[in-house]
Design brief:
The chain is an alpha+beta fold and about 120 residues long. The chain has a domain of about 80 residues: DNA Binding (I), subunit A. It has 3 helices and 2 strands. The chain is extended.
Length: about 120
C-alpha cells in the first residue's frame, strides 16, 4: 500500500506523483542607478582610506586586534556615524571586523575610550 508518494521518499524527497511540477520564473532585477560624479569621488576616497587603514593595521581589526579569516571581512567604520554628523576622514574612521562593526555601528557612545578621544567625542 502506498501513501501517495513516489520512491523519492526513500531519498528524502517528498514528491507527489499526481501534481505536475510548475517551473518558477526568475524575477527581473531593476537596473542599477547611475552614480553621480560626487558619489563616485566619495566612493573612490573611501576605498583609498580603507586601503590605508588596512595597511596601517596590518590586516587586523583596529578595535579587537583580531585578524579576520582569509583577510576578508574588514570594513570601513565611522566612529561618529555619518547620520550624526561624522565625516569620512582619517580621524573618524577605523578598519573593523564585521562583529565589531555591528556592535558599535549605531552606538558610538559604547566605543572604547581611546576611539572616543580620537574622534573628539569623549565626555
Amino acid at each position: 500500500m502506498t501513501l501517495g508518494f513516489s520512491k523519492d521518499k526513500q531519498l528524502g524527497k517528498r514528491v507527489k506523483p499526481d501534481k505536475p511540477v510548475i517551473p518558477v520564473k526568475a524575477k527581473k532585477r531593476k537596473p542599477l542607478k547611475k552614480v553621480s560624479k560626487k558619489q563616485a569621488k566619495e566612493l573612490k576616497g573611501r576605498s583609498k582610506l580603507k586601503a590605508q587603514l588596512v595597511m596601517e593595521s596590518e590586516g587586523k581589526c583596529m578595535t579587537c586586534n583580531k585578524k579576520p579569516r582569509n583577510g576578508i571581512g574588514l570594513s570601513l567604520s565611522h566612529i561618529v556615524p555619518l547620520s550624526r554628523g561624522g565625516q569620512t576622514c582619517r580621524e573618524n574612521c577605523l578598519a573593523e571586523c564585521d562583529n565589531c562593526h555591528r556592535t558599535f555601528e549605531k552606538h558610538p557612545e559604547k566605543r572604547p575610550m581611546w576611539q572616543q578621544v580620537r574622534a573628539g567625542i569623549a565626555p
